Give the backbone structure.
Amino acid sequence: MNELLFAFGNLRSEVMFITMTTPTPLSFHQKIFTHAKSATFAKDFSDQKNNPLRPLREQFAFTLIELLAVITIIGILAGLTLGAAGAVRRHGATSTAKAEVAALQAACDRFYADNNSYPNNSAVNPASSVAPSGYNAAGQALFTNLVGSATLSAAPTTKRYLEPKPAMVYTNGTPNYFVDPWGYAYGYNSDGTNAPLIWSTAGQTTSTGTNKWITSWPKM
């Protein structure tokens, strides 16, 4: 009887030892995750072994079609931006020319109030000359009468009726003359008695596009 109890005690100890040292079985989803992780590592290790310079985890790269699509979108956005910038510059130049034409007209009115005549020069007129390069002589006559000197930097010898900004004056010749935001001379025509005609061709150098001119008279 004692021998049986002793043998049963030993058997019980061995069962408890086996139970304590046997790992707990993994659940089903843990088994699947562990298997997938092992398979991925094995594939990466195999690729790394075949090509040592290849990283274990490669980043996804853009395809040619995706790159072309991105380049196309960038080109469209750049075109829209440049077009908008050009429109803003044209609008700004037009607004500046309108303000300068109004300032020249007001200066001529002040000149008339003192001298009972306008600066006289009828060398060009809007109907016969549309090339702004032909306006220089008339512009010089207008400049000397309104500024009171042949150049902007010289001290006036007569009353100055206009204080132009330097950007409004062409100074690489004597006398100077007024230029519009496009760099061309302002057109001027007056017989001294009638109100002067002052205009900018708004960058136009041919007979076409006269409807874009900025003028001191209302356009029909």
In short: The two ends are 133 Å apart (CA to CA). The helical segments are 2-21, 28-50, 64-115, 136-147.
